[in-house]
From TrEMBL, chains A, B:
Belongs to the class-II aminoacyl-tRNA synthetase family. It is an enzyme of class 6 (ligase). Residues 1-356 form the Aminoacyl-transfer RNA synthetases class-II family profile domain. Keywords: Aminoacyl-tRNA synthetase, ATP-binding, Ligase, Nucleotide-binding, Protein biosynthesis. GO terms for molecular function: ATP binding; histidine-tRNA ligase activity; identical protein binding; RNA binding. GO terms for cellular component: cytosol; mitochondrion. The keyword Lyase does not apply. GO terms for biological process: histidyl-tRNA aminoacylation; mitochondrial translation. This is histidine--tRNA ligase. It comes from the Eukaryota. Its EC number is 6.1.1.21. Gene3D superfamilies: Anticodon-binding domain, Bira Bifunctional Protein, Domain 2. L-histidine binds at D70, L71, T72, R97, Q113, D117, R266, Y270, Y271.
């Protein structure tokens, strides 16, 4: 479930992380860092059915600790502990889950999360729109192919549940059942609702009419006219904000990739408003035109109640955030690199310092020291008298573009011969 | 013992880590990554007296796990598991110790280590010299003030113990007592040797004559002539290599900061050859000329036996490595920043998109979207109608250098007013 990452892996991952962090910084986020270890009680009651996946440590002298499950709950605790009411931050770090790892789908027990969050009381939907813009920028920058960002609102879902006659105590559990609609057909979701969750068949069918809808501004307008839903205060609020969100996304020029999708529920307990999830699309094959989803690569939403849970006086700080699923993206790009046969360089060495004759170790050591001091990335073989062929072979194996050659003649003349490893061109300088 | 890191902290730390990683890459190292969780048995028996500081996890279904204590043992396990006999790698990551944290001295239960290691069978002392060059480069690049790098060799120490009549079974424990010489006077170390460790007073005194010596090539030559030490095979080997090391360090031009110091022992069990430690120096006060050490900021050494402990057939891979004590360095630089009153920027935002009148949110959203798409780091206030003064104040508070101002007139003219926040100069463009 955990694994070592060899150099080719880390080199590619660092490239991905750099793209993500560059985007987070472009949006003015500051970085914070919280410990891997949290008090167990900090994590309990935040993750719904997933609480059982939390890694627990042995009793450390009265302290019951656990490994963090995500970066959102520690962020909320951080805000509350430090009485911060206003912050835009990113955090790129590993989280831990005692899951049965599905390693082929890029799921492990230890994996990176890349989070961007905006905390504070602001005018509605401006920060929410920025989160969606960020997802759009990152997925475009990474050139992952076609994608769609599904958007919904917990208030709309709760409104739907209410008008379908579901008691409020069953909203969260119904939510996590709806959330399975991306992995199983409606019939199965319906039977879980009726069988396991105890909803009436009529209520389930009624829910089904709503949660299978998706569209854009037109659908928002249509639901705002829906005689039952428009009577529900929560749903009306959510639909009004959804309309505002689409206005802002139009100004950002990204509505082409956004789908208002009532089946989107997201499993975590702490969401309170807008929720969203980005999925990559792939043409199924040449005969079928409909693209199929190859999995979620980013998600997030608004969680206005979480910070208050850590504040002794319950003071709330509204928050909205996005998490980029870097491990999933990594698996896809890794497969692509493999298929293309591209060789990922694992070092950045610019020049190998070489000697063509024996007894020239001192000359190599002096030259490489000068290169390092000048900030040039340089290597040499750790042998007293390596063969020139071996040295040049090392350049080819590792992708070092230049060899600096110093022999007796060069030492006498006070020059260095620089060889382009690929073209074999040489200059003395 | 663990702590949150606010933005100003992370910004400064990232600056330090970037310097360290740049140096590691300059020397051609590739990055690997290993999990925070290791099997408990991997870690036991490697850290001498510090084994009690290892954090243990609850039984995870038959797997007894622990949090890594350093990055060296996981690296050795990685080499053995993957049958790698040759590698230059760096790893920057957090490690965990159940220590009583001395937070004023920059010691915590969760902290970064920055390691560079060279594994492989090579001609003697070339990789070892490179490790010392790396320490020299990093401490110079960070401009931490004067420093000295103490060097010794476990073989020389063991030779000293042997000629002083200590049985081999007591070498490691004697070593960890000698290691305390940088924190307590010889008299106390001597009494621990005689009292707790059970050495004879004569043997302890004899050891004392050696371990209080320090110098350069002259001292190496002197010890090579020492009638007893030169008869000891291990000591002779170590002294011969030490001489070679000083030759290479002379070619690197860094012997001015290197001290061959027989009191240096280093506590960890796994060292087998050269060991070293860098300490920062500080003039004690104006009256005393002798600089005093303000603590160790880097250390390392050769551990030729560790990989073999993880190989089922015991195959050895010689290794030498260095660890940069980034947390200690951080405390020093943090104090310096505090004293200077310098304000560390926590974001990199280049421009704030502002409007001077009401009802211009759409204009701001359109402009900021264009800036982001052009790769420019931009922010705006998340308010529909913020006051211009508030917006400019935000620039001053966060150090954003430019404000892009669009009002009715600019929209009509199709231009943007760009304002330098410090000089208040404005241009329309």
């Amino acid at each position: 479930g955990t694994r070592d990452h060899p150099p080719a892996h880390v080199a590619l991952r660092d490239r991905l992380l750099a793209t993500v962090v560059t985007c987070f910084k472009r949006h003015g986020a500051a970085a914070i860092d919280t410990p891997v270890l949290e008090l167990r009680e900090t994590l309990t009651g935040k993750y719904g059915e997933d609480t059982k996946l939390i890694y627990e440590l042995q009793d450390q002298g009265g302290e019951l600790l656990a490994l963090r499950y995500d970066l959102t709950v520690p962020f909320a605790r951080y805000l509350a502990m430090n009485k911060i009411t206003n912050m835009k931050r990113y955090h790129v770090a590993k989280v831990y889950r005692r899951d049965n790892p599905a390693t082929t789908r890029g799921r492990y027990r230890e994996f990176y999360q890349c989070d961007f969050d905006i905390a504070g009381q602001f005018d509605p939907m401006i920060p929410d729109a920025e989160c969606l813009k960020i997802v759009h920028e990152i997925l475009s920058d990474l050139q992952l192919g076609d994608f769609i960002i599904k958007v919904n609102d917990r208030r709309i879902l709760n409104g739907v549940f209410a008008v379908c006659g579901i008691p409020e105590s069953k909203f969260i559990t119904t939510c996590s059942t709806v959330d399975k609609l991306d992995k199983m057909p409606w019939e199965e979701v319906r039977s879980e609702m009726v069988g396991e969750k105890g909803l009436s068949p009529e209520a389930a069918d009624h829910i089904g009419e709503y949660v299978q809808l998706h569209g854009g501004l037109d659908l928002i307008e249509q639901l705002l006219q829906d005689p039952k839903l428009s009577q529900n205060k929560l749903a009306k609020e959510g639909l009004g904000d959804m309309k505002l969100l689409f206005e802002y996304l139009t100004l950002f020029g990204i509505t082409g990739k956004i789908s208002f999708d009532l089946s989107l529920a997201r499993g975590l307990d702490y969401y309170t408003g807008v929720i969203f999830e980005a999925v990559l699309l792939q043409p199924e094959n040449d005969h079928v035109e409909e693209p199929v989803s190859v999995g979620s690569v980013a998600g997030g939403g608004r969680y206005d109640g979480l910070v208050g849970m850590f504040d002794p006086k319950g003071r709330k700080v509204p928050c909205v955030g996005v998490s980029i699923g870097i491990e999933r993206i990594f698996s896809i790009l890794e497969q692509r690199v493999k298929a293309s046969g591209e060789k990922v360089r694992t070092t950045e060495t610019q020049v190998l310092v070489t000697t063509p004759q024996k007894h020239l170790l001192a000359a190599r050591l002096k030259l490489i020291s000068e290169l390092w001091d000048a900030g040039i990335k340089a290597e040499m073989l750790y042998k007293k008298d390596p063969k020139l062929l071996k040295q040049l072979q090392y350049c080819e194996d590792t992708g070092i573009p230049l060899a600096a050659i110093i022999g007796e003649q060069e030492l006498t003349d006070g020059v260095v011969k620089l060889r382009d490893v690929t073209t074999r061109e040489e200059v003395r300088m």
